[in-house]
Amino acid sequence: xxxxxxxxxxxxxxxxxxxxxxxxxxxxxxxxxxxxxxxxxxxxxxxxxxxxxxxxxxxxxxxxxxxxxxxxxxxxxxxxxxxxxxxxxxxxxxxxxxxxxxxxxxxxxxxxxxxxxxxxxxxxxxxxxxxxxxxxxxxxxxxxxxxxxxxxxxxxxxxxxxxxxxxxxxxxxxxxxxxxxxxxxxxxxxxxxxxxxxxxxxxxxxxxxxx
Length: 211
Description:
By secondary structure, the chain is of the alpha/beta class. It has helices at 7-25, 37-50, 70-75, 77-85, 128-136, 153-163, and strands at 30-34, 65-68, 90-91, 105-111, 114-116, 121-126, 139-145, 149-150, 174-178, 183-184, 192-193, 200-206. The relative contact order is 0.21.
C-alpha cells in the first residue's frame, strides 16, 4: 500500500508532513510516520492493549478488539493479517448492526484519501460501514499515503470532483473533512471530547518513516 517517493518530490513531501504534524499536534492529534502496514498493526495493538472507556467495555471474559473499515480491509488485506499475527482480535461491522463497531472495540482503523498540511485536516471518502467504524470506536487510526498529503485547501478543492463522482452505492459518495478529534461545547458550554466520534485520533502516514 505504501508509495515510495524520492528526490525533490520526497523532500517536498517531508516538509508537508512536518507541517501537517505541527498543525495536528495543536489539535491533540498524534502523527505516526510508518513504512509498512505492519507498523500500523503495531500501533493498533498498543492502543488495543490500553483498552477503552467503560462505556465501550467488552462482555465479561472477552478482551478489547480492533475493527477495520471495509474499504481499507478490501484494499489492504495484509493489515488484517498483521493484526491477527500480533494477537489483535477483530470485530466486524455491517450497517444494519452498528453496535458491532462499538461494543468491546477500542480502536477503529480506516483510510483517508488526503491530508491537508495547511490546516491539519484529513479528507475521507467512504460509505456507511466505513463511517460507522470511523465514528463509533473511542480511538481511531486514519491511514494516509505520504504521496496524498496536499499543501492547502485549494488543492483539496481540486480533488473533490473526483472524490464525489462515484455512484450512490460506492465509498466515494460521501466526503468528510476531519480536523482533530470529535469535540463539542453544546452541553452547558463545557468542552467535551469524543461526544460525536473518537476522542483520540491517530494519523499513520505510510511512506513517511524516518531512518
